[in-house]
Amino acid sequence: MPFPTLNTYLAHLSDPDRPASSVWLDSAGRAQGKYFNCTITSAFQPIRALGSSRIVAYEGLARSASAGDAGLSLWKLLDHAASDDESIELDRLCRMLHAINFFRQDEAGHSDLYLNVHDRLLSAVSSNHGHAFKRILDALDLPVGRIVLQLPTTTPQQGWLLNYVADNYRRNGFRLALNAASVAQAQAMVAEQRPHAIKLDARYLSGGVSLEPLLEAARVAGVRLIFKRVETAPAIATADVIADLPLYAQGFFLDQPQASLVTEAAVAA
């Protein structure tokens, strides 16, 4: 493991004589945490470069703990948290678990880790978004530069809030990925926010809306364009020939989320 401080921390978590805490290791070495009566762990879904199927990143996903990789998605828990403080606590716990479970695996290589930020947290955190998470990463000597914080879709009225939060995350050393609700919004984000990446639903690959202006703007600005929710072969076939620039994809057609990082870059499709 290339992260000795994390290795020391994992050894501490596996010590049977240590005091009880909110984070522990299961029999497979995966970090787990407790939120109310629910045990939470991590699953990871690759983000691939189209054409080569090369894995460039993984998205960390909160799952209920299970014997295999069949845990249920727990992101909706944040929608029902009783207070903003509990939402913040759960979000930070999930990000910490994902960082530990990602970087403890040698297969992480040089890939990035994308982590979601729930929309409730955009206004719930009073100031300095990302500072608490950065302190955790620094304490474990994990690279902030390989974390991409994925912000939720926002309305035009929330533009000021998005800019404020994005600025705080950048000041703490994080790169950002933005979720766009439309091609037009994605193009505006390229011009106004210039994030590391923009994620757009794969349904826009089926036609009806020209992608060429967005693709050209993303190329010029150096913004990575990721098509999410890829669930069919036609979407991949369309994306492969849509432009002569790098495109990226993520979805159940390519990969099912699982606890262990993928070791084989090839995909059946």
TrEMBL record:
Domain EAL: start-end pairs: 18-269
Name listed for the protein in its UniProt record: EAL domain-containing protein
